[in-house]
Write a structure and sequence with these properties.
The protein contains six helices and nine strands; from the N terminus they run ααβαβαββαβββαββ. It is of the alpha/beta class and about 200 residues long. The protein has one domain: Rossmann fold, CATH 3.40.50. It has a seven-stranded mixed beta sheet with strand order 3-2-1-4-5-9-8, with helices on both faces. Strands 6-7 form a two-stranded antiparallel sheet. Bound molecules: S-adenosylmethionine. S-adenosylmethionine binds next to helix 1.
């Protein structure tokens, strides 16, 4: 999966501007609200999985968070994010990796994923992701994950996705996690369309 997935995303990030992709969001308010509501210390390690060139890290730096890692399969996305952040790029740790091959070298207090997990459709890959997640989170660490909801889009940038209802989240995560909160959120794309997302906050058991 790695090479074709990487080429796919690199080609998107090489040809589309920031606000020419459906997931563009200058202020990722839902994610920020979830993270802020945890009241974790500002130096708690945060991993943004598939962060791409999202503004989450800019906003977290602004809020005083000091231990942020962004992981993405696309080196082009990460270069773009670094360029945009300028000197602040040094405040972030960057990892270019397919999440399916990711072997966390440290443990994170917060694992954030917006619009990445839903691209995994085969059980084998979903299980690989879950293993990295469990490996990468500290005890009592939080996963904050946003995926297309059951009434959300079926595809994104030419890829099929797997959509998640709250019940699907429950079936998938409740063995290993205590579900703290779920929330639906309607994302307005730069093309004036709407996408229904379901978010989950869950605590590692
Ligand atoms: C729809 S974008 C979302 C970007 C960002 N999370 C946001 O909310 O703005 C999906 C991102 O996931 C990355 N991605 C896709 N598959 C991946 C994988 N298997 N491993 C790591 N990153 C991946 C893409 O490069 C892209 O940056």
């Amino acid at each position: 999966m790695t090479n074709s997935t990487k080429n796919h995303w690199n080609s998107i990030y090489s040809t589309k501007k920031l606000n020419q992709v459906s997931w563009y969001q200058p202020i990722p308010q839902v994610s920020l609200d979830f993270i802020e509501s945890l009241n974790f210390s500002k130096d708690a390690p945060i991993l943004d999985v598939g962060g791409g060139d999202s503004f989450l890290c800019d906003n977290l730096i602004e809020l005083g968070y000091s231990n942020i890692t962004v992981l993405d399969i696309s080196d082009v996305a990460i270069q773009r994010a670094k360029r945009r952040l300028g000197n602040n790029a040094n405040k972030v740790s960057w990892i270019v990796s397919d999440i399916l091959n990711f072997e966390p070298k440290e443990k994170y207090a917060i694992w954030h994923d917006r619009a990445v997990f839903h691209f995994l459709r085969e059980n084998e890959n979903i299980n690989k992701y879950l293993n990295s997640l469990l490996e990468g989170l500290v005890e009592n660490g939080r996963m904050i994950l946003g995926a297309f909801a059951e009434n959300g889009p079926t595809r994104c940038c030419a890829l099929d996705v797997k959509r998640y209802s709250f019940e699907d989240f429950n079936n998938l995560f409740s063995d290993r996690f205590t579900i703290v909160k779920t929330q639906n959120s309607i994302h307005k794309t730069p093309f004036d369309t709407e996408q229904s997302f379901n978010f989950i906050e869950a605590k590692k058991k």
